[in-house]
Amino acid sequence: MKTPPASRQNDSCPASPPASPERRAFVKGLATLGAGLASSTVFSNSAQAQPAAAKAGPAERAPGLTTASDAATVVETTAGKIRGCRRNGVYGFRGVPYGASTGGAARFLPPQKPGRWAGIHNALHYGHVCPIGDPAHGYADGGNRADKDEDQFLLYRGYAEQVPGEDCLRVNVWTPEINGSGRRPVMIYMHGGGFTGGCSQDLLSYDGENLARNHDVVVLTHNHRLNAFGYLNLMEHGSKYAASANVGMLDIVAVLEWVRDNIANFGGDPGNVTVFGQSGGGGKVAALMAMPSAKGLFHRAIIQTGPYLRFLTMEESNQLSAAMLQELGVTKDRIDDLQKLPVERILAAVGAMGRKFPRGGTNPLKRTFGGIVFSPTVDGTILPTHPFDPGAPAISASVPLMVGSNFHEFVNGCDNPQVTTMTDDDLTRRVREAFGDKAPAIIAAYRKEYPRNSPFDHYASIAAAPVREASFTQTARKAALGAAPAYQYMFSWRTPVLDGRPGTFHSCEVSFAFDNAELCDHYSGRTPEALALAKQVSGAWVSFARTGNPNHPGLPHWPAFTAEKCETMVFDAPCEVRNNLEAEGRRLTAMA
Q: Known catalytic residue: 506?
């Protein structure tokens, strides 16, 4: 196999953006507040609050200290030695190959192990990302981000370099310890973007340094195949392509296998692995829960606004594949020509499929996850069943699950002037267009649930109802198995940035789950309220990863989900547990 090239970079660390003098002064001024949050608001003891700092020497705790050297930052993996960097006591390794290149003759085939390399391979820079088109001017799935200035500002979209290439099976690791005896919880994040876009370095909130440092865990993100490269069903065209409809998910199984075989050298516990992901990343978590090849490779699961109940049937998948081959002009007797086509031609065809088979519905009030676009296929082997239909997957019955959504999701105030102009009449008209005669009852249910909200807020809440209902369905079906607990949440905190107009939009909770509120200050505003809530949220994620239970001293008691009460943790300032959240509104919209 081809030996991965060494990085051309110097021994420097492209970690989080360097702190400005203003930020350093701010952090220094918050030292007392931060200590108080750690000891009295979130954690019950200082060892849990900052175990990494407690174990580090004075030099390791020095602000801004970055080291990359053969003597101090090299780890042995199953494919050879890698050199990362250490920054503020956290080791970072980026772009580590967990699989061989997927280009050429390997295209559409299951992932293979990376070739072993001699010497030391640099792991100082993010690796290639799966080709997805141009994020600035339109994704290959037909979506467009060019007119989303506020969304890009709030989420720091594309903050790191994204070089497309089919040699994209790369993993990134942040850890407080290497080459030692520590056995920390391992948290593997699945990026969003459906199954067609996104990457491990798409958002600044994906940076795992703070989560690793502040909570003494090992954090991983990764890149894998997407769109047609990961999910084009060619099964009808010979045994060679028997796995083609799901090779993107097999890439993620390869990540889990890499963790099993290597993570002990990074201070992690291969017997305590949590998979978590947002949006399409949540869908990837759902798929893993139904895959026999992933069984035993992870032990907890968190689905953040990724309430996929079903994936593609063979009929749907074959329909998409036939349209794709027609678009490419490739006949069945020349199917191997697909492995020789330029990437750009395949992406152009993927974009055409995104327009021909739009994801979800066209009405913003009835949008659901799924649809006939590139995503996993229930093929009877790699993915034997739909993940949460008609029930939760029995194969992962013993895995605790946490599921949630955001208050507003896809209809929100980002780049949306309606947030201040929508009237009650506008609200009634739009809801009636989607739900007909049930509109008055639906609006009344949400006005009763949220009596202080504006017409636009009600509109956004009703638009989130299908997402919320699917999220509750996942949790209820998991709880019904009775083998492991399930927990439900809703994130509802509103940023003060941009005059509070954005609302609680899709992806906004990710920076809080990663304990990156101070880093991602375009969203948090660096307010004390936001920093405290980020500790509560990230503390819950880590507590769940550590024990399978998200409760910690900084939160009200969070009961496991039951069908009778539908207990839901509402992450806001303050946090609270609510029973039967939006029950009447969800019931009415689901029936319409």
A: yes
